[in-house]
Amino acid sequence: MSDVTLDARGRLTLPKDVRERHGDRYHVVELHDGIKLVPIADDPLEALREEFEGVEKSADELREEAREMALDEAGR
Asked: What are the SpoVT-AbrB domain coordinates in residue numbering (predicted)?
């Protein structure tokens, strides 16, 4: 973990090892207690294909499973 500081123009410089590991493009996500930098892949569609390569269920099946889990967590 590294500490970084914004410059006078509001720019943030990430350490070289972080840039080499995660790339140069990030999505900034605002959380209730801070922010999160999420790396953006050079080819986002290819990254998604790789991420879900071994998934055997259809999008509809995954959606229904997520819906059921959300209902269970909400106390149905």
From this structure: 4-45
51, part of any domain: yes
Enumerate residues 6+ apart whose C-beta is below 8 A from 49.
none
Dist CA 66 CA 76 (whole Å): 14
Domain of 68, in residue numbers: 16-73
Whether 9 is in a domain gets the answer: no
Residues in the chain, total:
76
Both structure tokens of 37 = 């930098």
Does residue 4 sit within a domain?
Answer: no
Q: What is the pLDDT of residues 25-51, one digit of tens each?
A: 999 999 999 999 999 988 989 988 888
CA distance linking residue 62 with residue 57, whole number of Å: 6
Interacting residues of 42 by C-beta distance below 8 A, sequence separation 6+: 23
Global pTM reads 0.57
